[in-house]
Amino acid sequence: MPHSVLADPGEGEGRIIADAYVEIGPDDPDYDRLLGQSLTEQELEEKRRRWRDEDADLLQRFEEWKSGRTED
Prior knowledge:
This protein is 44% helix and 15% strand. With 72 residues, it is of the alpha+beta class. Strands 1-2 form a two-stranded antiparallel ribbon. The longest helix has 27 residues, at 41-67.
């Protein structure tokens, strides 16, 4: 379950400073509403794998782009 951490009012008036994930259970009031959006451990691991794979491709393309630049 995504959970945003907000700065203290004196430090940005509700500005989000971090996102985290918290586990909720069937006794949580929002459980039924959020159940349809939930991921299994296997689905989450597949997402992480895809992110890593896509990040590797993006990093490679960036490095290729960067190596083609000349210093001014």
